Amino acid sequence: MKCVNGSEIIILWSGEGARAVPLAGHVGFDSMPDQLVNKSVNHGFCFNILCVGETGLGKSTLMDTLFNTKFEGEPTQHNQPGVQLKSNTYELQESNVRLKLTVVNTVGFGDQINKEDSYKSIVEFIDTQFEAYLQEELKIKRTLHSYHDTRIHACLYFIAPTGHSLKSLDLVTMKKLDSKVNIIPIIAKSDAISKSELTKFKIKITSELVSNGVQIYQFPTDDETVAEINSTMNGHLPFAVVGSTEEVKIGNKMVKARQYPWGTVQVENENHCDFVKLREMLIRVNMEDLREQTHTRHYELYRRCKLEEMGFKDTDPDCKPFSLQETYEAKRNEFMGDLQKKEEEMRQMFVQRVKEKEAELKEAEKELHEKFDRLKKLHQDEKKKLEDKKKSLDDELNGFKQKKTAAELLQSQAQQAGGSTTLKRDKERKK
Amino acid sequence: VLPPWCFVTPGQRNLNLKLFVSQRNLEGYVGFANLPNQVYRKSVKRGFEFTLMVVGESGLGKSTLINSLFLTDLYSKDYPGPSLRIKKTVQVEQSKVLVKEGGVQLTLTIVDTPGFGDAVDNSNCWQPVINYIDSKCEDFLNAESRVNRRLMPDNRVHCCLYFIAPSGHGLKPLDIEFMKRLHDKVNVIPLIAKADTLTPEECQLFKKQIMKEIQEHKIQIYEFPDIEDDEDSKLIRKIKERMPLAVVGSNVVIEVNGKKVRGRQYPWGVAEVENGEHCDFTVLRNMLIRTHMQDLKDVTNNVHYENYRSRKLAAVTCNGGVDTSKTKNQMTRSPLAQMEEERREHVMKMKKMETEMEQVFEMKVKEKKQKLKDSEAELERRHEQMKKNLEAQYKELEEKKRHHEEEKSNWEAQQRILEQQKLDASKTMEKNKKKGKIF
């Protein structure tokens, strides 16, 4: 539809089909991108880079070179017991653009004898940043617009310049990371490789990555403005870089370079290394895309997995969509039910114990009573025996008493009679 | 600049890395100054969305204003605006427009509310409006909360133009009521409609009166944020002084002094729509479209939507939302973290309950055992006593017996002696008899 200023309105009535109407003048909608950009610039930008690679591959030097500034840190030793991640945040400004840059370094990567678990702390770190964002996003009262995003937007994987192929540690680590972060593989300290060796090396690396199913970050080719340069650059991956913060005078300029007896390697010379390409792609052209991919792809994947793990679903068994409220309510009911069940179980257990103990004590009580009943019976028997004995003794006593009384009576009678006989005798005698 | 009632309670736990941020100066070209261009490029590719709502009684020129705003006849004789169609109750109607200008694509949704304020009894005529706004927030909330999230279309209402009738006196009760109910749900921009019926002085007075009443009723209309840029801040101040904006709309293009302008032709002259001295239309258009469209969307997203969301989620998880300190604490967590916390609390509670029940149990058992012991002791004691008693009796009996035996044997011995004596005596008598001594 040809119109004034190349602008038009296509009207889509609710239910009445579409018709196109020209704009009769400049309304001003085309200022929207500028409004958005102004807001972003005012807000400031944020970018987080993770550098993964063995100790001594020049990670810190490369960061210094890329961002033209001296970042913190001393070179690390090789005797770390495990892989640690150290991060530092810097506020940089270039013209009117403020950037909060976080550089995360893997300390001790590849130094251990057993490197099976090396990738674990890296994966954990990346997941922790996702988790922090997810927690913030799920809060009831949240402040996403002022949240300091710590999610890793780009992972520079430093490959040792052996000239042959990838190490198995590299393959294992990259495989574990490719679904969590945008991986940009680079060949470190590439001034140790000649040009012909480099071509072969790059081909070998790319084919190994493909055959192992490692998905590295592809510079986007969907936007016409940058599609061409991006697709060309995709073909130069992995970038062979050299880093240096020292400056050497070449001609009448001071350039960043490494000076050897046989010549000087200029960092920003595209014939010498791919440093400029890396800087172009990473910072100048695709920084925003790296952030977008992290948010819409890697973070969404993490979030989806996490929510599914917790039992959240989008549709119920009848394929009707859940509303958020229903989901939370269902979850909450389940949760409360669970808690209540636990409480009930514990109570029941206690009731059981009480019952058992009561039965035990009752048993003991019964035994005790039985024991004393027995004793009582014993005692009663004894008492009865005693009574009997007493009775028999009493009988005997009575018997004896009677005998005694009877005998005494007889005796007294006999005495009386004897006395009278004696008297008679005496009387007769006297006569 | 956000109203203070949006800020989160301090002291929230944060998994965010607490980083010491240091400033660094660059010593050469890096290239991230190109970031704004990258953002620009991506946003153009994505396209933009905006939803505009117009509310006011019929006949206030809403449709005309929309046509004027977009410099085209969205509403015309063949496609009349919703207001011209007779409605019995308050409706909420939306129409979508796809605008392309200068390579930028914008999907504009215009929401009209025919029938608003037209009935005799207008109680709750704002309810359909509130329902519409809430339902769009609800859609967004559900889309945002899905497990599988796709591109989420933003159909939330970003701006609500409220048309005030040009009475010249002040706000009507309906105006006040409506704005009070909607100011915390959507960006409300009040407009004085058909401003060509007011003289500049009348208009000034009217505006002052309206602003006074708005402040009195604590209505929070959309505030233009201050921009640091000096030039723009002057403009902003100018806009703020002119609030509420008095607008005139027209569907007709008239020729004035050789120029074609939109305006309203009267016998006494032409009221030009785009003339800053005639009305504030240009101010409105510039503000709404050219400078603050993005900010209206941001405030909707960061303030109004977040308020809706926290209210909705608090209702689900906080069971009632009584404003205690516990609820405030709950708000700073996600519902899932909230459940985790509750689970932990419950475990502690259970442990405590368990220890308590255990204690009571032990105590009761001890009591019972003690009682048993006591009664055992008591029974023992009694048994002992009885035993002693019996023993004493036995002893007594033995003593008695012994005594009796002794007595018996004594007496028997005595008897024997007596018997012997008797025998001896009778023997002697016998002897004497025999001897004849006895006559």
UniProtKB/TrEMBL annotation, chain A:
<protein>
    <recommendedName>
        <fullName>Septin</fullName>
    </recommendedName>
</protein>
<comment type="similarity">
    <text>Belongs to the TRAFAC class TrmE-Era-EngA-EngB-Septin-like GTPase superfamily. Septin GTPase family.</text>
</comment>
<keyword id="KW-0547">Nucleotide-binding</keyword>
<dbReference type="InterPro" id="IPR016491">
    <property type="entry name" value="Septin"/>
</dbReference>
<feature type="region of interest" description="Disordered">
    <location>
        <begin position="404"/>
        <end position="431"/>
    </location>
</feature>
<dbReference type="Pfam" id="PF00735">
    <property type="entry name" value="Septin"/>
</dbReference>
<feature type="domain" description="Septin-type G">
    <location>
        <begin position="43"/>
        <end position="309"/>
    </location>
</feature>
<keyword id="KW-0342">GTP-binding</keyword>
<keyword id="KW-0175">Coiled coil</keyword>
<dbReference type="GO" id="GO:0005525">
    <property type="term" value="F:GTP binding"/>
</dbReference>
<dbReference type="InterPro" id="IPR030379">
    <property type="entry name" value="G_SEPTIN_dom"/>
</dbReference>
<feature type="coiled-coil region">
    <location>
        <begin position="325"/>
        <end position="403"/>
    </location>
</feature>
<feature type="compositionally biased region" description="Low complexity">
    <location>
        <begin position="409"/>
        <end position="422"/>
    </location>
</feature>
<dbReference type="InterPro" id="IPR027417">
    <property type="entry name" value="P-loop_NTPase"/>
</dbReference>
UniProtKB/TrEMBL annotation, chain B:
<dbReference type="GO" id="GO:0051301">
    <property type="term" value="P:cell division"/>
</dbReference>
<keyword id="KW-0547">Nucleotide-binding</keyword>
<dbReference type="InterPro" id="IPR008115">
    <property type="entry name" value="Septin7"/>
</dbReference>
<dbReference type="GO" id="GO:0005819">
    <property type="term" value="C:spindle"/>
</dbReference>
<keyword id="KW-0995">Kinetochore</keyword>
<keyword id="KW-0342">GTP-binding</keyword>
<keyword id="KW-0158">Chromosome</keyword>
<dbReference type="GO" id="GO:0030496">
    <property type="term" value="C:midbody"/>
</dbReference>
<dbReference type="GO" id="GO:0005525">
    <property type="term" value="F:GTP binding"/>
</dbReference>
<keyword id="KW-0966">Cell projection</keyword>
<keyword id="KW-0963">Cytoplasm</keyword>
<keyword id="KW-0969">Cilium</keyword>
<feature type="compositionally biased region" description="Basic and acidic residues">
    <location>
        <begin position="395"/>
        <end position="410"/>
    </location>
</feature>
<feature type="region of interest" description="Disordered">
    <location>
        <begin position="395"/>
        <end position="439"/>
    </location>
</feature>
<protein>
    <recommendedName>
        <fullName>Septin</fullName>
    </recommendedName>
</protein>
<keyword id="KW-0175">Coiled coil</keyword>
<dbReference type="InterPro" id="IPR027417">
    <property type="entry name" value="P-loop_NTPase"/>
</dbReference>
<comment type="similarity">
    <text>Belongs to the TRAFAC class TrmE-Era-EngA-EngB-Septin-like GTPase superfamily. Septin GTPase family.</text>
</comment>
<dbReference type="Pfam" id="PF00735">
    <property type="entry name" value="Septin"/>
</dbReference>
<feature type="domain" description="Septin-type G">
    <location>
        <begin position="46"/>
        <end position="315"/>
    </location>
</feature>
<keyword id="KW-0206">Cytoskeleton</keyword>
<dbReference type="GO" id="GO:0005930">
    <property type="term" value="C:axoneme"/>
</dbReference>
